[in-house]
Amino acid sequence: MTPISVAGREIGPGRPCFIIAEIGLNHNGQLHLAKALVDIAIQAGVDAVKLQKRSLRDLYRNELLDTPEKGEKGFQYILPFLQEFELSDSDFREVSRYCKERQITFLCTPWDRPSADLLEALEVPAYKVASADLTNLDLLEYLCGKGKPLLISTGMASETEIEATCGFVRERGVPFALLHCNSTYPAPFRNLNLSYIPEMQRKFGVPVGYSGHEKGIAVSVVAASLGACVIERHLTLDRTLRGPDHASSLEPQGLARLVRDIRIAEEALGQPKKWMTRGEMMNRTVLGKSLVAACDIEAGTTLERPMITAKSPGKGLSPQRLYDLVGKKIQRAIRKDEEFTEQDLGAAETQRRKKLPSGYRWGVIVRYADLETIVHPDLAAVEFHLSDRDLEAGLPNWLGTYPFEVILHMPEYWGTILLDGCTTQPEVLSATRDVWKRLADLGRAIKPHFEGNRNTPVKLVIHGGGWSQVMPLEREKRWTLYERLAVSLAEIDPTNVEILVENMPPLPWFFSEEWFSNLFMDVDLIERFCAEYRYNIVFDTSHAALYCNYAKLNLTDYMTRLWPLVRYLHVSDGLGVDGEGLQVGEGGIDFRPMAGLLARNTEVIVATEIWQGHKYGGEGFYTAIERLSGIWAGAQIPLASA
User: Fold this and answer.
1) CATH, domain 354-641, list 3.40.50.970, 3.40.50.620, 3.10.20.310, 3.20.20.150
2) The whole model's pTM is what?
């Protein structure tokens, strides 16, 4: 389905709902009231305001205008309002000018040709077609001649008539959307038939919206949730005012709540994929279960079902692997309540026997204990993601010599302190700077144990901080945080270490709740910081994808801009604005353009950072490596020579 564009705003599936405040005749013929309603609509956050324009002599037969009593009762009711409430042409020009001044899209329904001509002179970006004119090929033909998009309401029409009008407009090559509608004022809930909205999308293949005349806001929110790309609702200052539409209109607070709730519903709808959010991941560790021994078990014992149970926390072997354990011969003695591990399944050795794809310098993120279990001999690097306890303990005394390069990732916390290198809180700032100094000291101490660092400094992965809990900081105030960060980083002794700051996701998760990032997202500020203070970065693909989704940026363009600063890669998939650390191919990232970027610099280490990727012998890490290698092997690499 092709979206349509109105005033530069795309309307269609997957785009934010286009919300129209229909002023209609609710200005009651008073220019100042029309402008006041424009102000209210803007304050509510709608995308456009709409009026109606009629030339009564061109719209009705003269006989009816001269002798209204010859018309139907409905005509006799509505005509006095139309005569009394119609704004003058100069009033319409003023409302249009005022909308431009207030930077809100001005739309209008022309009920006749002269009205359409006036609106064309006012440069409306699209025409709304009233339900009463869905069958009016005379007017539709005239509007199609203007070459602008049409928003066509479908109240008072049969499906056959809708089909005929769709064909008529398509033949003339004019983009259009349909608005599901029930043309009674106010419309009873039982007659609204919102289930027809998805059917209209399927049947007619154009964007479908909803023009509502019911009481309240709930139905319109449901319509948006069912896929309505446009929501149009009447706006009034007071539902008790004289006029034909006030009773079925929303008052200012109602319109504001409608916009708020539609935006909440859009956010909640998300995407048709299942993934665990960062908060769920943390809660799963605390509340989930792991397989543990139900009794003391001697080495060499063949495991039977009664020997195994499940208890919290969920850091060990998943209870879904229960029957993978049953029947295994345990190679070690295990005490009651001790967790079973992937090694008890033989998973680590299975992964280590695989040959890694060539052509890239692969790395994985591990803990010290993983060196002898899940670290593959073909890797170019390992990254230790340290906890505060790891850093406090210092270099393990059992550490041997390894052929890889080593990278150290700072802990995010020191006890109960969230580390932050640009905070104004003295205790937090002091703790952060101390941790960073310890990290550098550990880097120098660990360097001799890794042959890959013989001529290479140990890379230190730093999160700069700058978090906020209530709301993000305005962009123009963020550079001050970068300046504070530079002061903190300058206290690190750079001997034999390389400081790399990581790009951040927009909504990190700390202390079991969502926070806001203010640093290392905006590409201009990252470039400025790195140029002024001579630092490079760790580029995290998942973080970048979440930020680009949040800021509505193109990920490939973003990554290409930052690539000259990239010294190390964290690679995982991402979805939405907080779905990070997903397995490659299970999120929304197109990894193919990275092939061209990596061709520019074959020395960059590609570390797969899949959440829980260390489990089952590093299965998640090595699956990601296999998938990335396959993607890049088949990718075109036009960026390589750029």
Assistant:
1) 3.20.20.150
2) 0.74
